[in-house]
Amino acid sequence: xxxxxxxxxxxxxxxxxxxxxxxxxxxxxxxxxxxxxxxxxxxxxxxxxxxxxxxxxxxxxxxxxxxxxxxxxxxxxxxxxxxxxxxxxxxxxxxxxxxxxxxxxxxxxxxxxxxxxxxxxxxxxxxxxxxxxxxxxxxxxxxxxxxxxxxxxxxxxxxxxxxxxxxxxxxxxxxxxxxxxxxxxxxxxxxxxxxxxxxxxxxxxxxxxxxxxxxxxxxxxxxxxxxxxxxxxxxxxxxxxxxxxxxxxxxxxxxxxxxxxxxxxxxxxxxxxxxxxxxxxxxxxxx
Length: 287
Prior knowledge:
- Residues 97-157 form the HTH tetR-type domain.
- Keywords: DNA-binding, Repressor, Transcription, Transcription regulation.
- Residues 24-68 form the HTH cro/C1-type domain.
- The chain is mostly helical.
- Helix content is 70%, strand content 0%.
- The protein contains 14 helices and no strands.
- The chain is globular, with a radius of gyration of 22 Å.
- The relative contact order is 0.08.
C-alpha cells in the first residue's frame, strides 16, 4: 500500500487542484458539497480535509485520489494557458478567499477571548499579518465584525452537528449528540459560546444587530425542533407540544452554558450534561 505524503504536501496539491478548476472558490465548494467557510479553512490549513471531501475534490478536479494523497499520477490541467489571465484571476480569487478566512478566524477568536469592545482593528490586522485597510475592506464596522464572528461560529456548530448526524438515523441518539456538541469542554467551545453571549448583549443595545442574531438563532432552534418532531414521528412525545419542548430545551441550554462560561462553581460541564439529558422528560427519554 502506498503511503500518503504529509498533510502539508497533500494540502498543496489540493490547492493546485482547486486553482485549476475555472470556477470561483464558492462554486467549487458547492460542487464538492462543502460549506464555503469550511473549504476556506481547509485550504488555509486550519481544518483538515475529511476522506470523503478529498474524494470529492479529486472528482471535481478530475484527478485521482492517489494523486492527492501521494503525488503519483496525472496532475491537474488548468483550462487555457497556465500563465494566462484567467488562471491568474482564479489563483488571485483563491488567495483572496483564504485571506478573508484568515481575517474572519482572527476576528472571531479575538472577540471571543478579549471581548467585543476591547478588540481594535489594529489587533485583528496584527493577528493575521495584514493592514487595517484590508480588515476594514472585509468588515467596514465593528458591528459587521461581530455579525461575521457569530456566523463563523454558527457555521462551525452546524458543521459539527452534520458530522455527528451522519453517523446515526436515530432522533434520540441525535439529540444526545446535539447535547454533547453544546457542552463547553474545550477552548473552541468556550470561544463559540463567548461570541453567542456577546451577540445577545449587543443586540439588546443595538437594534441593527438583532436581525442577524435572530436569523442565526432560528436556524439552531429549527434543528432542535426537527429532532423533537422526528421523535414524535417514532411515537414519542405524541401528547406534548413540540414547540414548547424545544423552547424549554434551548432556553435551558443557553442559561446553563452562561453559568459554565462565567465560572459558576455550582454548574459544571457534567452537571450541565445531566440536566440537558433530562430536559425532554417525561416525553422523550435520552438516558
